[in-house]
Amino acid sequence: MRIHQRARLKALVCALFLALSILEGEASALEQDRQTVDLELVLLIDVSASVSKLEFRLQIEGLMAAFRSPVVLEAIQASGGIAVCVVQWAQQARQFKSVDWMQLRRHTDALNFAKQIASITRQTPSGQTAIGNALMFAMNELNTNSYTALRRVIDLSGDGRSNDGLLLEEARATVLQHGITINGLAILNEVSDLKQYFRKELIGGYGAFVLTARDYADFSRAIREKLDREIRSTPLASNPHSDTRRMTRKGSDQTFVAHIRFPP
Predict the structure, then answer these.
(1) Coil, strand, or helix at residue 14?
(2) pLDDT per residue over 83-95, tens digit each?
(3) Whole-structure pTM over 0.70, yes or no?
(4) 36-258 CATH pick, 3.90.650.10, 3.40.50.720, 3.40.50.2300, 3.40.50.410
(5) Please, is 117 exposed, middle or buried when counting C-beta atoms within 10 Å of its C-beta (0-12, 13-18, 19+)?
């Protein structure tokens, strides 16, 4: 009897080891299938109730113009390639990927991406401001795409404070634990101190920064400058529209953390 029990136990242990080996092999194969780029970037654009139809169009047109601008085209060409997608966000259950992940290495890639942006339609006409949920949606996109990069960045544009959904503090902490940088573009048409709010409550990660647009008409200028700096990864020294922040996690070297791809 004991001999049979030992035999069954041995068979079970062998089966478990075999299953683990298969899972490890699949995970390794998936990682090898990922395409390497310099930067993975999620662009989060605000479509909450505070954003009018005109303001939404100004965001789309500004983003489209940015990927057609010489400065951003040059930044992409000089990089080792970037992977980027566009997400609309509003209240907690309303995040929509409007342009799927695309790899940009040449001018033609960026111009094709701009064409995709031009076709974006608004997915929700209203909704509150759930920044925490937007961050978690973006983190999932970064963790499940087919790319791998030294830098992973969430670029959130918005015109108000979080007032719905997940606690921003908790969502932000989770994102930072995955080695992801959060940058912000504060649109100051409604909340004059939004830059300070984004700086204190939103941004984080190595070299994180806030850039401001005076209003939606100024969005095109701001997003062009923001993309240029994110792609080139240049420090923001002295700029009246910008603010930088370096985050140091207890017991770790932030430069090292920023260059690790954490598992989903």
Answers:
(1) helix
(2) 999 999 999 888 9
(3) yes
(4) 3.40.50.410
(5) buried
